[in-house]
Write a sequence for this structure.
């Protein structure tokens, strides 16, 4: 058992696991970050973890610091669970769950990335399905949101296929340039219609103990 039980939380599906982002797992995943396999074209985000830092070692350092900072902030209006995506024992990306005023509204959003050499295999859909199962089944979420730039066809397709509904648009910057976002909303009722019985939650009592869920 970890000294910090949130790092024992895990979600498993037939094709992958989401394992809480321990320092050991992040050390393994750092090689993917160092190799620049986080990049995408078009860019799906505006450098939230300094993935576009050109120096490989500095890129890893900034990425790790961002996770350490986020992992330590657990407040009623904001908390974030970081998971490493593991396929056949190999870390290949991350899938995070973010509580936004969860204690009041029961709302979450998510963030993810996948190594360039692992894309196009349906893993992005499976990762999102796994984190939604944790949110709705494990934590009792009422609603999940997602944003994606309009030209990020992969992320938008995943949201659509998982039952999210369009929820307007917004603007954000992408490497300093304005770009239009699609906003998506998944209600608990819509998730229930697609609920799967082959996604399993492990050690999630830690979430109920250490997160401000109510």
């Amino acid at each position: 058992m970890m000294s910090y039980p949130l790092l024992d939380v895990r979600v498993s599906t037939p094709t992958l696991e989401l394992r809480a982002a321990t320092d050991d797992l992040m050390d393994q995943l750092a090689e993917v970050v160092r190799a620049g396999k986080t990049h995408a074209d078009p860019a799906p985000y505006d450098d939230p973890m300094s993935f576009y830092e050109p120096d490989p070692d500095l890129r890893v350092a900034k990425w790790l610091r961002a996770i350490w900072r986020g992992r330590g902030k657990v407040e009623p209006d904001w908390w974030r669970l970081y998971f490493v995506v593991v396929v056949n024992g190999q870390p290949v990306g991350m899938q995070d769950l973010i509580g936004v005023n969860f204690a009041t509204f029961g709302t979450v959003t998510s963030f993810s990335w996948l190594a360039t050499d692992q894309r196009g295999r349906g893993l992005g859909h499976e990762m999102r399905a796994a984190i939604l199962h944790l949110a709705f089944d494990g934590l009792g979420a009422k609603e999940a949101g997602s944003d994606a730039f309009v030209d990020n066809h992969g992320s938008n397709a995943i949201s659509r296929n998982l039952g999210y509904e369009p929820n307007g648009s917004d603007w954000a910057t992408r490497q300093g340039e304005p770009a239009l976002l699609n906003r998506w909303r998944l209600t608990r009722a819509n998730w229930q219609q697609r609920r799967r019985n082959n996604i399993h939650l492990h050690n999630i009592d830690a979430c109920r103990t250490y997160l401000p869920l109510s």
Summary: The chain has a mean pLDDT of 93. Residues 56-72 form the longest helix (17 residues).
